[in-house]
Amino acid sequence: MSFSTPSETIKNQKSSLKKWALVLIIGTLIGIASYFTVFKSQPSTSNDPRKVFATRVMSVSTAPVQQGAIKIFFQGLGTVIPLSNVVVKSRVDGQLMDILFTEGQMVKQGDVLAKIDARSFEVQLKQAQGQLLKDQALLENALIDLKRYEVLLQQDSISKQVLDTQTALVHQYQGTIKVDEASIDSAKLQLDYSTITAPTSGRIGLRLVDKGNMIHASDTTGLAVIAQINPISATFTLPEDKVPAITQALHDTKTLEVEAYDRSDSILIAKGHLASMDNQIDTATGTLKFKAEFDNTENKLFPNQFVNIHLLVTTKQNALYVPSAAIQHGSQGNFVYRVKEDQTVSVQQVKISSTQNGNSIIEEGLNLSDIVVVDGVDKLREGSKVDMNATKETPSKASRTKNDTQK
């Protein structure tokens, strides 16, 4: 048996490692050569993205530039307020005997709402009437004595002082009768006040006092509150930079139309007119407060209701406009994709004066004959080919039911 020395063992291990390294290198080179031989000879299946956008036809919806009269609205947030809020209160003290109104009903001025126990007032009236009869009898007797004294004075049977005293007594009774008549009027008035009537027309609110309670003229709460809602008003604010245009419009037309929309700004509730404006701008908000008035014959507006107010300032004639969906925003401002005759699009910078009824009014950048892309703009770039599969018409004047915030 032969044994290898340690030095021989180390040499054998080094020789084995060199062989394996050589095999690994050769295998790697063969793999690289095979890759280039197989894949390099095949045509490339990928394309330049720029060439794809340049040759690919994009399906889009378009709309032509239109021309017409566009109403210019200023929009503000408003709150409906009644023309008057009247607390129904008793003018006399007494027990509430009957309530004759239904909560929430419409009432007219003079309608009977409640009745107070009137017996004490009837007694006071009878007392005043009895006192008047008594004093009238005293006056009649004093007048008879006065005539008698006048005859006796002519006969020199009494002194002048007696006649003067009787004359003064007659005047006293006459004054007493005046007081009695006033007492009767006061008693009648108190009796009338025992029947509580509506001080104004409007919608009456919830009952604040129940039947059977004692009520007083000094009570602050009252029986109920009547809100005058026909007509009704709404207050709203607009930025101070809109004030010059509004004052100019008032100077030109005297009356400005106002539309009230619901909270979502989608449903028209009522139409009215601008009634007044405040006399100073709120420095904290930079706004001016306005008040609009509505007939509200259909009772669609309620006090404290939130509304979107649209104030018609002017009508722009022969305005060029496109759907607002066509307007895009970039680093250089607003732009649209204009469709050219070769069915490609170009980026066109535009200047917009305002946005109304879902349409943007174009001041610069487009002509009446131009066509712009409305839907599918996210797939486009300069020079893209398009297929105009649908053409969208901008809303007509007859179909405009709301307006967007102006720019």
Helices and strands in order:
Blueprint: H1 6-39, H2 49-55, E1 57-64, E2 66-88, E3 94-99, E4 106-107, E5 112-116, H3 119-154, H4 160-193, E6 195-197, E7 202-204, E8 214-215, E9 224-239, H5 243-253, E10 257-261, E11 268-277, E12 287-294, E13 306-323, E14 328-330, E15 333-339, E16 345-349, E17 351-356, E18 359-364, E19 371-375, E20 385-391
Parallel strand pairs: 1-20
Antiparallel strand pairs: 1-19, 2-9, 2-13, 3-5, 3-8, 4-7, 5-6, 7-9, 9-12, 10-11, 10-13, 11-12, 13-18, 14-15, 15-16, 17-18
Helix pairs in contact: 3-4
Structure, explained:
This protein has 407 residues and is of the alpha+beta class. It has a domain at 49-83 and 228-407: Beta Barrel (Elongation Factor Tu (Ef-tu), domain 3). Helix content is 30%, strand content 36%. It has five helices and 20 strands. It has helices at 6-39, 49-55, 119-154, 160-193, 243-253, and strands at 57-64, 66-88, 94-99, 106-107, 112-116, 195-197, 202-204, 214-215, 224-239, 257-261, 268-277, 287-294, 306-323, 328-330, 333-339, 345-349, 351-356, 359-364, 371-375, 385-391. The strands form four sheets. It has a six-stranded antiparallel barrel with strand order 2-9-12-11-10-13. The longest helix is centred in the middle third of the chain and has 36 residues, at 119-154. The radius of gyration is 48 Å and the shape is elongated. The model is unreliable at 38-46 and 396-407 (pLDDT under 50).
Number of helices: 5
Low-confidence stretches: 38-46, 396-407
Order of helices and strands: HHEEEEEHHEEEEHEEEEEEEEEEE
Shape: elongated
Oligomer: single chain
CATH architecture term of the domain at 49-83 and 228-407: Beta Barrel
Structural class: alpha+beta
CATH topology of the domain at 49-83 and 228-407: Elongation Factor Tu (Ef-tu), domain 3
Rounded mean pLDDT is 86
Task: Write the CATH homologous superfamily of the domain at 49-83 and 228-407.
Answer: Efflux pump adaptor protein, beta barrel domain
CATH class of the domain at 49-83 and 228-407: Mainly Beta
Characterize the biggest β-sheet: 6 strands, antiparallel, barrel
Number-wise, the strands total 20
User: Portion of residues in helices?
Assistant: 25-40%
Radius of gyration: 48 Å
Q: What is the spatial order of strands in the main beta sheet?
A: 2-9-12-11-10-13
Q: Note the beta-strand portion.
A: 35-45%
Terminal Cα separation, in Å? 105 Å
